[in-house]
Amino acid sequence: MAYNRAMLAGLTIALLICHASCVTAQEETQAEIVAQSNNPLSPLNAVNFNNYYAPTIYGVPGIANTLNIQGVLIPRRRHFDLFHIIRATLPVSTVPVDSVTYESGLGDMVIQDAFRISKLSARAQFGVGPLLVIPTATSTALGAGKWQAGVAAVLVFTLQGGSVIGGAVTWQTSFAGDASRPKTNLSTFQPSVALAIGQSGYYLSSSPIWLFDFENGNYLIPFSIGVGKVMKLGKTIVNVTAEPQFTVFHSGGPTPAVQLFVGLTLQWKKPHRPTAGAPAPA
């Protein structure tokens, strides 16, 4: 408990120092920074830490916690003019097995490659690409035990003042892996809203993940509203979000009744180094 308080105090002090040192220099472009940071199709390399804490779970006594560690990479364009974004996500989870037993460890790694097929300057942007799930889970309770493949698509609208609204859809199914484990066939939908509050760098957020597990008949639809803050520390864009999420519909095996989502995103602009004869970036 003391360690958690010290870590929270240190993070708070660091954010306050960052805000005090950066707000004056960034005031004129704060809206653009907020919009870039909350746009999943922006050309920003990043490291994301997204934590979901569930104090109450339908069907199983106990709590659950998942920390998604995600790296975002914008590959260099050397031989052809193609913009795509690679995301690799590795969950670190603790889940209840029964009323007294918990399992903790790594979950299945998810890799997505989104190809942006619209100009960066467009108000409406669209991206689509393949999805691969690697069975890296350290326990049967933490992963499906299957290699899975699918597709992901994202649509984003950038509004005036730095606000961003959109949504992402994924679908995946198993094609190999542990023959004794059930097959997978599931989809997710994540509406995403970030409404900028003036030039303050703050924004109202909503980004719940809806789950549709067609193979096992498990469904989860949460609603959420929270607050976030975007600031710059040198060349690093820092985005912090806190968002309670409440389940409004669920069906099937254990799903969270309520969750607290806390996110920390560190982003860096990718320098453009055009090659001879290559067209200018969109």
Would you kindly provide a brief summary of this structure?
This protein has 282 residues and is mainly beta.
Model description:
Helix content is 12%, strand content 55%. It has a single domain (2-269), classed as Porin. It has 282 residues and is mainly beta. The protein has helices at residues 2-26, 30-37, and strands at 44-58, 64-73, 84-96, 102-106, 109-116, 124-134, 146-158, 164-177, 185-196, 202-206, 210-213, 218-224, 226-233, 236-251, 255-269. The chain starts with a helix and ends in a 13-residue tail after the last strand. It is built from two helices and 15 strands. The chain has a 15-stranded antiparallel beta sheet that branches. The model is unreliable at 1-10, 12-28 and 275-282 (pLDDT under 50).
Descriptive tags:
Porin; disordered N terminus; globular; disordered C terminus; 282 residues; 15-stranded antiparallel β-sheet; 2 helices; 15 strands
